[in-house]
Amino acid sequence: MQKAPSASRNALNKDAVYSVTAKGKAELGTAGTHLSAPEVKLLVLIDGQTTVSQLLKQASSSLAPAAAVDAIDKLERDGLITSKAAESDGIEATGFFTRPVFPLPSATAETGAQADFTLELLRKQGYVSRIVKKAAGTRKVEPGQKLIVLVVEDDPQLVKLLRMFLQLEGGYELRFAGNREEITAALRLGKPDLVLLDVTLPDADGFDVLVRMRQHPVLKEIPVIMMTAKASREAVLKGLVAGANGYITKPFQIEVIIQAAKSVLGLA
Amino acid sequence: MSYQQLSREFDVLRAEYRKSMPAKLDRIEALWDLILKGMQDDTRLAQLKKELHTIAGSAGTFGLPKVSDVARAAEECLGESADAASLGEKQRTDFIRLLGELKSAAQAPH
Questions:
Q1: Burial class of B34 by CB neighbour count within 10 A (0 to 12, 13 to 18, 19+)
Q2: Of the four, A24, A86, A103, B3, which is 20 to 30 A from A120 by CA?
Q3: Is-contact A131 A240, C-beta < 8 A?
């Protein structure tokens, strides 16, 4: 049975990235192929890195856009190419850092008194352990099941420490990212169950990453705990307004992070 | 890994962190020197703030809370200044004092 395409002609995601499957490579290697010339051309151009939009541009001299879209659609249906997200059971993260995002209400516009009130309200609503919101329910973890934790942190010494303690805690599959490229790559590996997110990264702002996650169809529900040395009230509120489930200021006690992770995952 | 082993490993990480402090402080001093000498390179101030921010965010976790506090004060002292030219005289004096405090805190016995 043929695999259903993940993108129809009308809804083809121009940011999607395709790679050639083993079947596709075999097809390219055969002496006589049943593929049309446009399909062969695209099969040659597809390299696992180029987006659909770039492919359409590259093929535009000899191929009308509509024909190219049809060809991609058919190649996918025939199992000769696969989208990177489908291939890795991961997330379509291409353009994660370049897509426009909707602005959030400003936290810094609040007066001091209002901010104090907001923090008080948050405490009453169940934010504990610095500021961490407990998961609504309890999560059942099957024996052998590992929850994926993506740690976004660029300080190698903190990474080492977090790795050591989270590994000892057990039950976690750990992924690490320290910059934009690594974040995108880590997301492509699959949906994490929790993100521990540093705010100050060499080429990214953790608040921006959070906002992008909250506006991403697959990532929007994933619990995020911000870990940051930005300890001002405005910074804390900014994180919470953007949808963080927790905000832990650095330097932290490692136990606080472990406990916070359990809380937001519904394990505590 | 048992908790006893973990505790030992954590001690090793703490020791490594302390050992890495002089090199970090050297980098900070070198950056500050370049800034004082008026080398107009905006990235150096940003780099200096980033170094201080990283220390502020990690030293306490590795058992050096005073170092974290002073590093944060030094980072805040530089404030929103975008380049070396916009640093006022008081900022410069305060920063030099904080740099001294940072070195003392990093060298203090723990």
A1: middle
A2: A103
A3: yes
For chain A, say whether B53 makes contact (Cβ under 8 Å): yes
B99-109, pLDDT tens digit by residue? Answer: 999 999 998 87
Q: What's the Rg (C-alpha) of chain A?
A: 22
Q: So what's the pLDDT on residue A169?
A: 87
Q: Which residues lie across from A177 on neighbouring strands?
A: A152
Residue A4 — very low, low, confident or very high, per pLDDT cuts 50/70/90? very low
Mean pLDDT across chain A, nearest whole number? Answer: 80
User: Which residue type does A138 have?
Assistant: T
Which among B50, B58, B72 is the nearest to A157, CB-wise? B58
Chain A residues lying within 8 Å of B57, measured CB to CB: 155, 158, 200, 228-229, 250-251
How many beta-carbon contacts under 8 Å exist across A and B? 59
Residue A132's pLDDT is 77
Percent of chain A with pLDDT over 90: 31
Cα distance between residue B57 and residue A229, in whole Å: 5
For residue B75, the 8-state DSSP code is: H
Query: Are A164 and B9 inside 8 Å of each other by CB?
Result: yes
Q: A165: closest CA among A181, A182, A149, A180?
A: A149
